[in-house]
Protein backbone atom coordinates (compact mmCIF):
# COMPACT_ATOMS: atom_id res chain seq x y z
CA UNK A 1 0.00 0.00 0.00
CA UNK A 2 1.37 3.41 -0.99
CA UNK A 3 1.95 6.09 1.60
CA UNK A 4 -0.52 8.93 1.93
CA UNK A 5 0.27 12.04 -0.11
CA UNK A 6 1.68 15.00 1.77
CA UNK A 7 0.86 18.69 1.64
CA UNK A 8 2.49 20.40 -1.33
CA UNK A 9 2.57 23.69 0.56
CA UNK A 10 4.46 22.11 3.42
CA UNK A 11 6.94 20.49 1.06
CA UNK A 12 7.52 23.79 -0.75
CA UNK A 13 8.01 25.59 2.56
CA UNK A 14 10.53 23.00 3.73
CA UNK A 15 12.39 23.14 0.42
CA UNK A 16 12.55 26.93 0.37
CA UNK A 17 13.86 26.97 3.92
CA UNK A 18 16.62 24.47 3.12
CA UNK A 19 17.61 26.31 -0.05
CA UNK A 20 17.73 29.64 1.77
CA UNK A 21 19.99 28.18 4.45
CA UNK A 22 22.29 26.93 1.68
CA UNK A 23 22.64 30.48 0.35
CA UNK A 24 20.42 30.04 -2.71
CA UNK A 25 18.87 33.25 -3.97
CA UNK A 26 15.25 33.05 -5.14
CA UNK A 27 14.81 29.95 -2.99
CA UNK A 28 11.02 29.93 -3.24
CA UNK A 29 11.13 30.16 -7.03
CA UNK A 30 13.66 27.34 -7.25
CA UNK A 31 11.56 25.19 -4.90
CA UNK A 32 8.58 25.56 -7.21
CA UNK A 33 10.71 24.82 -10.25
CA UNK A 34 12.02 21.62 -8.67
CA UNK A 35 8.47 20.63 -7.73
CA UNK A 36 7.39 21.06 -11.34
CA UNK A 37 10.32 18.88 -12.42
CA UNK A 38 9.49 16.14 -9.91
CA UNK A 39 5.80 16.15 -10.77
CA UNK A 40 6.27 16.49 -14.52
CA UNK A 41 4.04 19.55 -14.77
CA UNK A 42 4.36 23.23 -15.57
CA UNK A 43 3.81 26.19 -13.24
CA UNK A 44 0.12 26.34 -14.07
CA UNK A 45 -0.25 22.64 -13.31
CA UNK A 46 1.43 23.11 -9.96
CA UNK A 47 -1.29 25.58 -8.95
CA UNK A 48 -3.93 22.87 -9.34
CA UNK A 49 -2.30 20.54 -6.79
CA UNK A 50 -2.69 20.45 -3.03
CA UNK A 51 -0.65 17.34 -2.32
CA UNK A 52 2.42 15.59 -3.67
CA UNK A 53 2.74 11.80 -4.02
CA UNK A 54 5.36 10.06 -1.93
CA UNK A 55 7.39 8.95 -4.95
CA UNK A 56 7.64 12.53 -6.24
CA UNK A 57 8.55 13.70 -2.74
CA UNK A 58 11.45 11.26 -2.74
CA UNK A 59 12.74 12.72 -6.00
CA UNK A 60 12.41 16.19 -4.51
CA UNK A 61 14.38 15.31 -1.39
CA UNK A 62 17.23 14.05 -3.56
CA UNK A 63 17.06 17.11 -5.83
CA UNK A 64 17.02 19.60 -2.96
CA UNK A 65 20.00 17.86 -1.37
CA UNK A 66 21.92 18.23 -4.62
CA UNK A 67 20.90 21.87 -5.04
CA UNK A 68 21.93 22.68 -1.47
CA UNK A 69 25.37 21.42 -2.45
CA UNK A 70 25.16 24.12 -5.16
CA UNK A 71 24.82 21.71 -8.05
CA UNK A 72 23.34 23.69 -10.96
CA UNK A 73 19.61 23.38 -11.55
CA UNK A 74 20.14 22.38 -15.17
CA UNK A 75 22.29 19.40 -14.15
CA UNK A 76 19.63 18.25 -11.71
CA UNK A 77 16.92 18.58 -14.35
CA UNK A 78 19.19 17.11 -17.03
CA UNK A 79 18.37 19.74 -19.63
CA UNK A 80 18.12 23.44 -20.34
CA UNK A 81 16.70 25.80 -22.93
CA UNK A 82 18.81 27.78 -25.39
CA UNK A 83 17.47 29.92 -28.23
CA UNK A 84 14.48 27.86 -29.47
CA UNK A 85 16.04 24.52 -28.48
CA UNK A 86 15.94 22.12 -25.54
CA UNK A 87 19.34 20.63 -24.85
CA UNK A 88 20.63 17.88 -22.64
CA UNK A 89 23.47 18.84 -20.29
CA UNK A 90 26.15 16.94 -18.40
CA UNK A 91 29.28 17.47 -16.34
CA UNK A 92 31.31 17.15 -19.56
CA UNK A 93 30.24 20.60 -20.77
CA UNK A 94 29.41 24.13 -19.78
CA UNK A 95 25.71 24.78 -19.26
CA UNK A 96 24.38 27.01 -22.06
CA UNK A 97 23.59 30.51 -20.84
CA UNK A 98 21.30 33.17 -22.17
CA UNK A 99 24.27 35.54 -22.54
CA UNK A 100 25.57 33.34 -25.36
CA UNK A 101 22.45 34.02 -27.42
CA UNK A 102 24.06 37.38 -28.24
CA UNK A 103 26.22 35.51 -30.76
CA UNK A 104 23.17 34.24 -32.64
CA UNK A 105 21.55 37.68 -32.51
CA UNK A 106 24.71 39.22 -34.00
CA UNK A 107 24.82 36.55 -36.71
CA UNK A 108 21.22 37.20 -37.75
CA UNK A 109 21.87 40.95 -37.88
CA UNK A 110 24.92 40.47 -40.13
CA UNK A 111 23.49 37.72 -42.30
CA UNK A 112 19.69 38.28 -42.49
CA UNK A 113 19.44 36.25 -45.70
CA UNK A 114 18.73 32.75 -44.40
CA UNK A 115 20.49 31.06 -47.34
CA UNK A 116 23.66 33.16 -47.02
CA UNK A 117 25.29 30.76 -44.55
CA UNK A 118 25.96 27.27 -45.89
CA UNK A 119 28.87 25.94 -43.83
CA UNK A 120 29.42 26.43 -40.10
CA UNK A 121 32.25 25.45 -37.76
CA UNK A 122 31.77 25.56 -33.98
CA UNK A 123 34.99 25.32 -31.98
CA UNK A 124 34.60 24.11 -28.40
CA UNK A 125 31.04 23.09 -29.15
CA UNK A 126 30.11 21.74 -25.68
CA UNK A 127 26.40 20.91 -25.81
CA UNK A 128 26.31 22.05 -29.42
CA UNK A 129 24.14 25.02 -28.45
CA UNK A 130 25.68 27.63 -30.76
CA UNK A 131 25.94 25.39 -33.79
CA UNK A 132 22.45 23.95 -33.40
CA UNK A 133 20.90 27.38 -32.83
CA UNK A 134 22.59 28.66 -36.00
CA UNK A 135 21.45 25.61 -37.99
CA UNK A 136 17.88 26.17 -36.79
CA UNK A 137 17.98 29.64 -38.38
CA UNK A 138 19.80 28.74 -41.60
CA UNK A 139 17.94 25.77 -43.12
CA UNK A 140 20.42 25.09 -45.93
CA UNK A 141 23.51 25.10 -43.72
CA UNK A 142 25.61 22.15 -42.59
CA UNK A 143 27.73 22.37 -39.46
CA UNK A 144 30.75 20.76 -37.82
CA UNK A 145 31.18 20.92 -34.05
CA UNK A 146 34.57 20.26 -32.43
CA UNK A 147 35.26 19.65 -28.76
CA UNK A 148 38.34 18.43 -26.95
CA UNK A 149 36.24 16.05 -24.83
CA UNK A 150 34.74 13.02 -26.60
CA UNK A 151 31.93 13.02 -24.01
CA UNK A 152 30.96 16.54 -25.03
CA UNK A 153 30.98 15.70 -28.73
CA UNK A 154 28.74 12.71 -27.98
CA UNK A 155 26.32 14.85 -25.97
CA UNK A 156 26.17 17.45 -28.75
CA UNK A 157 25.37 14.70 -31.25
CA UNK A 158 22.48 13.55 -29.07
CA UNK A 159 21.26 17.13 -28.82
CA UNK A 160 21.31 17.42 -32.60
CA UNK A 161 19.10 14.33 -32.87
CA UNK A 162 16.82 15.63 -30.12
CA UNK A 163 16.23 18.79 -32.15
CA UNK A 164 16.03 17.01 -35.53
CA UNK A 165 19.25 18.53 -36.81
CA UNK A 166 21.33 15.36 -36.96
CA UNK A 167 21.32 15.18 -40.78
CA UNK A 168 22.86 18.64 -41.01
CA UNK A 169 25.59 18.32 -38.40
CA UNK A 170 28.52 16.24 -37.30
CA UNK A 171 30.42 16.40 -34.01
CA UNK A 172 34.02 15.38 -33.54
CA UNK A 173 36.54 15.20 -30.71
CA UNK A 174 39.67 17.20 -31.38
CA UNK A 175 41.72 20.32 -30.68
CA UNK A 176 40.50 23.42 -32.54
CA UNK A 177 41.31 23.06 -36.27
CA UNK A 178 43.26 19.79 -36.03
CA UNK A 179 42.47 17.42 -38.94
CA UNK A 180 40.01 19.89 -40.50
CA UNK A 181 40.07 20.86 -44.18
CA UNK A 182 38.12 23.37 -46.22
CA UNK A 183 36.63 26.77 -45.53
CA UNK A 184 33.52 27.85 -43.67
CA UNK A 185 31.06 30.70 -44.06
CA UNK A 186 30.85 30.98 -40.28
CA UNK A 187 33.20 30.09 -37.43
CA UNK A 188 31.60 30.23 -33.98
CA UNK A 189 33.32 29.80 -30.65
CA UNK A 190 32.67 30.24 -26.95
CA UNK A 191 36.19 29.31 -25.82
CA UNK A 192 37.63 29.20 -22.30
CA UNK A 193 38.22 32.83 -21.31
CA UNK A 194 38.48 33.02 -17.52
CA UNK A 195 41.99 33.88 -16.26
CA UNK A 196 43.23 30.93 -14.21
CA UNK A 197 43.74 33.11 -11.18
CA UNK A 198 40.03 33.92 -11.09
CA UNK A 199 38.71 30.34 -11.22
CA UNK A 200 38.74 29.89 -7.43
CA UNK A 201 36.52 32.95 -6.99
CA UNK A 202 33.75 31.80 -9.32
CA UNK A 203 30.34 30.91 -7.92
CA UNK A 204 30.33 27.28 -6.69
CA UNK A 205 27.79 26.18 -9.33
CA UNK A 206 30.42 26.98 -11.95
CA UNK A 207 33.69 26.33 -10.08
CA UNK A 208 32.71 22.96 -8.62
CA UNK A 209 30.49 21.44 -11.32
CA UNK A 210 31.49 22.73 -14.74
CA UNK A 211 34.70 21.47 -16.41
CA UNK A 212 37.74 23.62 -15.68
CA UNK A 213 39.14 22.96 -19.16
CA UNK A 214 36.11 24.80 -20.60
CA UNK A 215 36.62 27.77 -18.27
CA UNK A 216 40.33 28.43 -17.87
CA UNK A 217 41.82 30.59 -20.61
CA UNK A 218 45.39 30.86 -19.36
CA UNK A 219 46.97 33.55 -17.23
CA UNK A 220 45.20 36.40 -19.02
CA UNK A 221 42.17 34.49 -20.31
CA UNK A 222 43.21 34.95 -23.94
CA UNK A 223 45.07 31.72 -24.79
CA UNK A 224 42.21 30.19 -26.77
CA UNK A 225 41.65 33.34 -28.83
CA UNK A 226 45.31 33.37 -29.80
CA UNK A 227 45.23 29.70 -30.78
CA UNK A 228 42.05 30.03 -32.85
CA UNK A 229 42.87 33.34 -34.55
CA UNK A 230 46.32 32.16 -35.59
CA UNK A 231 44.63 29.70 -37.96
CA UNK A 232 41.14 31.12 -38.48
CA UNK A 233 41.87 32.89 -41.78
CA UNK A 234 42.93 29.61 -43.38
CA UNK A 235 39.48 28.14 -42.69
CA UNK A 236 37.34 31.21 -43.36
CA UNK A 237 35.61 31.72 -46.71
CA UNK A 238 36.27 35.07 -48.45
CA UNK A 239 33.01 36.52 -47.16
CA UNK A 240 32.94 34.54 -43.93
CA UNK A 241 32.45 35.59 -40.32
CA UNK A 242 34.20 34.66 -37.08
CA UNK A 243 31.99 35.21 -34.03
CA UNK A 244 33.38 34.83 -30.51
CA UNK A 245 31.89 34.97 -27.07
CA UNK A 246 34.15 37.00 -24.81
CA UNK A 247 34.43 37.77 -21.13
CA UNK A 248 33.73 41.17 -19.65
CA UNK A 249 36.35 43.73 -20.66
CA UNK A 250 38.11 41.52 -23.22
CA UNK A 251 36.88 43.27 -26.38
CA UNK A 252 39.99 45.42 -26.89
CA UNK A 253 42.49 42.58 -26.47
CA UNK A 254 40.58 40.09 -28.64
CA UNK A 255 40.10 42.71 -31.36
CA UNK A 256 43.83 43.47 -31.32
CA UNK A 257 44.71 39.78 -31.69
CA UNK A 258 42.24 39.43 -34.57
CA UNK A 259 43.64 42.48 -36.35
CA UNK A 260 47.15 41.08 -36.09
CA UNK A 261 45.86 37.97 -37.88
CA UNK A 262 44.26 39.84 -40.78
CA UNK A 263 40.71 40.23 -39.50
CA UNK A 264 38.66 43.34 -38.75
CA UNK A 265 35.86 43.92 -36.28
CA UNK A 266 32.45 44.29 -37.94
CA UNK A 267 30.03 43.96 -35.00
CA UNK A 268 30.05 43.97 -31.21
CA UNK A 269 26.87 42.97 -29.42
CA UNK A 270 25.95 43.18 -25.75
CA UNK A 271 24.05 40.62 -23.70
CA UNK A 272 20.90 41.46 -21.76
CA UNK A 273 23.03 42.80 -18.92
CA UNK A 274 24.66 45.35 -21.18
CA UNK A 275 28.05 43.59 -21.27
CA UNK A 276 29.71 43.23 -24.68
CA UNK A 277 29.48 39.49 -25.19
CA UNK A 278 29.81 38.82 -28.94
CA UNK A 279 32.57 40.05 -31.23
CA UNK A 280 32.25 39.49 -34.97
CA UNK A 281 35.17 39.61 -37.40
CA UNK A 282 35.62 39.36 -41.14
CA UNK A 283 38.60 39.47 -43.46
CA UNK A 284 40.16 42.91 -43.83
CA UNK A 285 39.65 42.68 -47.59
CA UNK A 286 36.00 41.60 -47.31
CA UNK A 287 33.63 43.67 -49.47
CA UNK A 288 30.57 42.83 -47.42
CA UNK A 289 29.15 45.43 -45.08
CA UNK A 290 27.18 44.53 -41.95
CA UNK A 291 23.67 43.32 -42.73
CA UNK A 292 24.38 42.55 -46.40
CA UNK A 293 25.24 39.44 -48.35
Q: Which descriptors would you attach to this protein?
A:
two-stranded antiparallel ribbon, seven-stranded mixed beta sheet, 293 residues, 37% helix, 11 strands
Terminal CA distance: 67 Å
Strand order of the largest sheet: 7-6-5-8-9-11-10
Could you tell me the radius of gyration in angstroms?
A: 21 Å
Element-level helix/strand string:
EHHHEHHEEHEHEHEEHHEHEE
Largest sheet: 7 strands, mixed
Q: What is the helix tally?
A: 11
Structural class: alpha/beta
Helical content (DSSP H or I, runs of 4+)? 25-40%
Shape: elongated
Mean pLDDT across all residues, rounded?
A: 92
Strand content: 15-25%
Question: Could you please describe the fold and organization of this structure?
Answer:
The chain is α/β, with parallel strands linked by helices and 293 residues long. 37% of the residues lie in helices and 20% in strands. The chain is built from 11 helices and 11 strands. The chain has a 7-stranded mixed beta sheet, sandwiched between helices. The longest helix is centred in the first third of the chain and has 15 residues, at 54-68. The model has no long low-confidence stretch (mean pLDDT 92).
State the gist of this model.
This protein is of the alpha/beta class and 293 residues long. The chain has eleven helices and eleven strands. The longest helix has 15 residues.
Amino acid sequence: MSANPVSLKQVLDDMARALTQAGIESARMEARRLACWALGCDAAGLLTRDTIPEDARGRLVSAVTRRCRREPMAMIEGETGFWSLTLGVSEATLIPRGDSEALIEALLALRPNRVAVRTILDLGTGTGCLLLAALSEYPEAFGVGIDLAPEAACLASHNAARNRLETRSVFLAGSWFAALKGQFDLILSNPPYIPVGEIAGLMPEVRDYEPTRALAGGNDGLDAYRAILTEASDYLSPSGLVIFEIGQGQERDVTRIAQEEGLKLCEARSDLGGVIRALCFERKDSTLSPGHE
